[in-house]
Amino acid sequence: MQAFFTLLSKIQKEEFSPFYLLSGNESFYIDAILKALTNKLVNEASSDFDYTLFYGKETQAFEIVETAKRYPMLSNYNVLVVKEAQFMHVSQFDLLAAYAENPMPQSVVVLCYKNKAFDKRKKLYKAVEKSGTVLTVKPLYDNQLVPWISEQARNLKLQMDPVAVELLAVYIGANLSRLESELKKLKLVVSQGETVGREHIEKHIGISREFNSFELQKAIGLGQFSKAFQIIQYLNRNPKEHPLVLTLATLHSYFQKLLVLKGVGSDPKKLGISPYFIKEYEAAARRFSMRQLTQAMECITQADLKSKGVDAVNQGSKEILEELLLKLFSL
Fold first, then answer.
1. pTM, whole model, 2 decimals?
2. Edge-to-edge strands of the sheet including 107-114?
3. Domain 140-207 is of which CATH architecture?
């Protein structure tokens, strides 16, 4: 996300805004901006005087405004952070909007509004857009996940082979905060100059060598019913480590990539997979027609709805996954 990196660069250059409105469905970026700001603006000596932390459930807008109007005592800026702002009553935002229209230059207000985008039609959004900085963040698309992991690994000076990257992408998905945490863990446990491979992921992240979502999609793609059935039995016995929602999301993403491959060719960048796996995906794509791939995605969507209680009659995760597997092999 270019807007994220542009804002991060400005913060590193100490180009601050008096009001930040950070919102969206990807908390990793919001947390990263907040951390960058507090690292630059807050120090231990002045934090008791010039730093105030609010929480949305417990905060009224007038408290934020009154605090923002104070002058800093020991620092250059009076810093206010509002976490979980999505829990504030919508009526509170109008008072904040009135302040944001003419913010105090010596104060920096950071409003963290997670799990959804802040409504652009609201007065606060328009006010901060004029006088401060607005950042709205979205989760990564499937084809952006592998490059993101590779880039984060490079930033950590962590060498990873394509299999390890793909395993992380499939097993963890687009949970960027967890991905960053697992990459940092790998950095600590591997020797300097050592390349992270499949065995490191299996040992330190806790992925079974033979029974995981990555192997399940591969077995389905290559038409290996017996192996696929064995894998789902293992997944069903370990629901905490392999929640159904994640398994279904992985399979949907897999068939979506096969559909893109058949439609636009095997460009790794468009597919969001490592070139190392292109031949495997091509072999799977040859087994299905465009119609079958579309039907497969529809079957997975139906299974997802059943897992959420829609049209499900006495079906648990085990029955839903087994039924889905039979449907996928009957296309």
1. 0.69
2. 51-55, 78-83, 107-114, 19-24, 133-137
3. Orthogonal Bundle (1.10)
